[in-house]
Amino acid sequence: MSHFNFCKDFQWFASKDGGRLVTPLRYDDGDQVVVFAKRRGSGWRLDDNGEGLFRLSAAGVDPESERVQARLSAFPLLLGVSVDEDGECLYAEADHSEFERTASAVAEASSQVQALSVLRRERQTSDFRDRVIRVVQDAATSAGVESRCNVPADESKTLYVDVYVCSRTPLLVIAATTPKRLMEAEIIWLDAARRKSPVYVLAAVESAREIGLSQYTRANYYTDKTVEFTAPTALGELVAARLHH
Fold first, then answer.
1. What local confidence, expressed as pLDDT, does residue 34 receive?
2. Domain DUF1828: where (predicted)?
């Protein structure tokens, strides 16, 4: 098994019939997502050992609910990942050359599933969210561009953006009031990238320190831009510049 050459962000632990790959992706509680690998002929079966759906159930969300099932049904097309026959594990099969890419896709799917636990909770409308919406809409109006609020961001309508600006390259703005909401912004960006949808995802947080510096830093890799809402003027100028891009 030593012939695998993973990047330094992954840790591989070999076993007799395969092994486990510890990935840099994390669940909401900070645990790293682990992908388990077993040989299947000349290829591999990669799965999350049921962790994503188990965590979703533990959060009080029914995996059989319509919204969750809609998301799961999109995974084969978006990520090449499916739910096994028992409805417990997220898995994919791969040959040697596609091992790392496929393992990353399984890990991404597992983290997305667990993140769905936030979708059934009522989102509290905060003053911060209202301020972000107001600033973005004012900038759009000044530029003569239409904007809409609470628009579905994915085909299964499980993720929503706070403001959708109908610019040449649509601008999707998320007011990340919590770490989980910031994770939703990352999922929206990843989903759009998988579908090759030409959008620009902008996430705004009230305080990077309160959100978590590590998650704030990571979000800049999984959104087009994540910023602190330091002042209405700064965000307005950023949006205006993007609309004239």
1. 96
2. 23-109
